[in-house]
Amino acid sequence: MTQAIRLRDYTVSLGPLEETLPEALRALPYSRLFLIADQHTAALLPPFLDRLADARVVLAPGEAHKNLHSCTQVWHAMLAAGLDRQALALHVGGGVIGDLGGFCAATFKRGIRFVQVPTTLLAMTDAAIGGKLAVDFEGVKNIVGVFQNPAAVLADPAFLSTLPARELRSGFAEVIKHALIGDPALWAAICKQEALDHTLDWQALLHASIGVKVQIVEADPLEKGLRALLNFGHTIGHALEAYYLGSDEPLTHGEAIAIGILTEYWLACGNDTRLREMEAVFARYFPWRSIPDTAAPALWALMRQDKKNAGGAVRMAIPGAEPGTLRLEALEESDLVRALAYYRGLAG
Ligand SMILES: NC(=O)c1ccc[n+]([C@@H]2O[C@H](COP(=O)([O-])OP(=O)(O)OC[C@H]3O[C@@H](n4cnc5c(N)ncnc54)[C@H](O)[C@@H]3O)[C@@H](O)[C@H]2O)c1
Hints:
Dehydroquinate synthase-like, alpha domain, 2 domains, binds nicotinamide-adenine-dinucleotide
């Protein structure tokens, strides 16, 4: 069954692509359909979609390729395909293809329309929604980009069946975050859930999780206030992700955010019932990771570069008492040291 979540400018359709894509294309008359995928997702294209595309570009997969070099490849292919401004781009992939494809489409001939077909859990629940498009530059993540909404988002849970388990868990951290910041019923369901597998009603889970993201980005499309709530866990989480990036054992985005959520919540709210629930849920999906005390100065240096900071203070976004409300809390290096000590205490 297909479900539709309507935003001001576009609709997120949740269900089999065989149903949602033809319907979306009927509503979006186009001159040529241009497909962007990576080498993994190109191999997953359903035959009907393969036949629909008039031209395509297939990029190397992964964050390492989310850069201007890949953009150049896309713009070359768009030119070679003779796309005019009525062309429609279709992005089939995870957050990397969605962000990069969106940026290329939003800038080619000053902007052609694009449809996001997210294929990872992270992209379905988070990256494909909200119109933030960017690529990495000179080693800085998402530093060159624009805000531009897609013409449609088509999320088909069937893509999750081929996703590696670690990627699935990584995306699940954002589902957990959405539940904690905006949907108590979703949080209650997650607390009861025992595994991430085929027994789950993925469509229901996605519907609830996307609903939280949609409410927040509709209230604050250009990230001037409430949207910072989506950064819960990301002040410490992003620093951890960056710190371990070049190491032998990098953390996935979700693994880093899971630690960020626990430590930031502990700092802001202390040992309450909600924290105990969060510890139990995260322990189910995310292996505990040893983070030595000696990492604190480097982590703090990374946190000081965070885009959310204002007036030189490092800030974290914490959910308020009511769902969908935000508290911004400043933190010091000594808080980070205490938070890491709390996390070390969870070693099981
Ligand atoms: N725009 C936003 O608001 C926003 C929000 C969150 C994250 N992001 C961005 O999203 C990116 C991360 O996205 P991601 O985690 O989806 O990473 P990704 O796009 O790199 O995908 C992860 C891996 O899974 C593969 N893959 C994708 N779908 C698959 C499938 N169905 N089956 C098997 N393999 C599949 C990909 O080829 C890749 O190797 C980051 O660049 C981040 O900055 C953007």
